[in-house]
Amino acid sequence: MDKCYPISVRLCGKKCLVIGGGRVAERKIISLLECSARVTVVSPELTERLENLVAAGHLVYRQGEYDTDDLQGVFLVIGATNSDQVNQKVAKDCFERNILVNVVDDPLSGNFFVPAQVRRGSLSIAVSTDGKSPMFARRIREELEGLYPPEYSELVELVGELRSKVINEIADEQQKAQILKQMADGDLMQLLREGQYDRAKELVKDAYYRSRG
């Protein structure tokens, strides 16, 4: 099998379709909604949580079995039914229409994989085995969760805010690059490894304010 090219896809406002309404589909739908996708779910029935999302207007629901017409105008599809036959048909139909499709129980049947992820706000660390062993990817993710605690989220937001200021306020490209490098230097990573998150934030701020004289 060819190697996969890792990317992060912006789904804000994109029409995404999930076939299936069980627990697995629920997890996929929640992830899509967190990315501001416009999600439609097709299934004979839904979990209670999905029913609540439909009632709140966060999710479009068509009750029934999958139909090829469901793919009209769709950017991305996830096949999450308990029927291999249905999931394979979904994948085949998407391939014929050049639509991104993932089959949860058989990732090699689709044309993209959903990696195991550690999310800390805007920080996302993805682990993939190109569909060969999702369980192994999850084990690695569990280890990474301990290495990157929730405090990383605040630091990433701070760095992002100050980075935007540097880019907008400093014209000299060489000076700009030097400041951005200082904001993520080796001392910062050492402080993070030691759990000194407040000191790490101060280090980032100091790098920025020194640049402003």
Give an overview in words:
This protein is α/β, with parallel strands linked by helices. It has three domains: 100 residues, 3-Layer(aba) Sandwich (Rossmann fold), CATH 3.40.50.720; 34 residues, 2-Layer Sandwich (Double Stranded RNA Binding Domain), CATH 3.30.160; 60 residues, no CATH class. The protein is 46% helix and 15% strand. A five-stranded parallel beta sheet has the order 3-2-1-4-5, sandwiched between helices. Helix 7 packs antiparallel against helix 8.
Chain-wise SSE layout:
Layout: E1 15-19, H1 23-34, E2 38-43, H2 48-55, E3 60-63, E4 76-79, H3 84-96, E5 100-103, E6 116-120, E7 123-127, H4 134-147, H5 151-169, H6 173-182, H7 186-193, H8 197-211
Parallel strand pairs: 1-2, 1-4, 2-3, 4-5
Antiparallel strand pairs: 6-7
Helix pairs in contact: 5-8, 6-8, 7-8
Keyphrases for this structure?
two-stranded antiparallel sheet, EC 1.3.1.76, 3 domains, porphyrin biosynthesis, 213 residues, alpha/beta, precorrin-2 dehydrogenase, precorrin-2 dehydrogenase activity, 46% helix, ferrochelatase activity, Rossmann fold, five-stranded parallel beta sheet
Question: Summarize this, please?
Answer:
It catalyses: precorrin-2 + NAD(+) = sirohydrochlorin + NADH + 2 H(+). The protein is α/β, with parallel strands linked by helices.
Number of DSSP helical runs:
8
Taken together, the total number of domains comes to 3
Order of helices and strands: EHEHEEHEEEHHHHH
Secondary structural class = alpha/beta
CATH architecture of the largest domain: 3-Layer(aba) Sandwich
In angstroms, what separates the terminal alpha carbons? 54 Å
> In what order do the strands lie side by side in the largest sheet?
3-2-1-4-5
What's the CATH class of the largest domain, please? Alpha Beta
Helix percent band: 40-55%
Roughly what is the average pLDDT, rounded to an integer?
A: 90
CATH superfamily of the largest domain: NAD(P)-binding Rossmann-like Domain
- Number of separate strands: 7
The biggest sheet, with number of strands, parallel, antiparallel or mixed sense and barrel status, is:
5 strands, parallel
CATH topology of the largest domain: Rossmann fold
